[in-house]
Amino acid sequence: MDEYISQMEQEFENKEEFGKELILRNCLRSFLIQIQRRKKEFESSSEQLPELPDEKRLQLVKFVNLINENYKKGFTISEYAGLLHISSRSLSELTHQLLNKTPSQMIQERLILEAQRMLLYSNLNINQIGYRLGFDDASYFVKYFKKHTNISPSEFRKSVQLQKNF
Question: Over pLDDT 90: what percentage of the chain?
């Protein structure tokens, strides 16, 4: 979402008038579509959550927010748990109860989502994306991405570009 806002700000400040309005409209349209998708995901996932005390739901929301703020930093599960003032085991039980996922899976999913977004919407090369996501070794980023998506970052980018052309 931040990337859409950033692109709109850059385009708004761009001195070139040709196509400016069209680009801004398309960025805004894409931004609103993403908001709608996230709203639907949130509504469907909250309907599936088991009845648990509000405190546990609040902890989960805090954990998700912490992931969104820190996923590039490579925090461990115990570091996230410490920020929530609970044990790693309690965090694991919480995510398993509510989402049937491990905390690691949630962090990995967020990292992969951001990698995919950057591959689609930025002109950065794969090494630059890996470094921006906190990977010290670009080749490890490629392996990590492929392990979690069954496709390399370059193959992912090419497949999406092919779909756009059709």
Answer: 51
Q: Are residues 97 and 110 in the same domain?
A: yes
**Residue matched to tokens 């694991």:** 92
Domain region containing 31: 1-48
**How far is the CA of 162 from the CAs of 26, 75, 121, 139, in angstroms?**
20, 35, 15, 24
- Residues with Cβ within 8 Å of 47's Cβ and at least 6 positions away in sequence, in order, are none
Yes or no: say if 118 and 124 are a contact pair by the CB < 8 Å rule: yes
Question: Higher-confidence residue: 160 or 122?
Answer: 122
Please tell me whether the overall predicted TM-score, pTM, comes out greater than 0.90 for this model.
Answer: no
CA-to-CA distance for 145 and 117, rounded, in angstroms?
13
Pair 96, 163 in one domain: yes
Provide, rounded to the nearest whole percent, the portion of the chain with pLDDT above 70: 89
Q: How far is CA 94 from CA 37, 66, 74, 82, 102, in A?
A: 25, 15, 21, 14, 9
| Nearest alpha carbon to residue 20 among 7, 33, 30 | 7
What pLDDT does 16 receive? 81
Q: Which H, E and C letters describe 56-82, residue by residue?
A: HHHHHHHHHHHHHHHHHHCCCHHHHHH
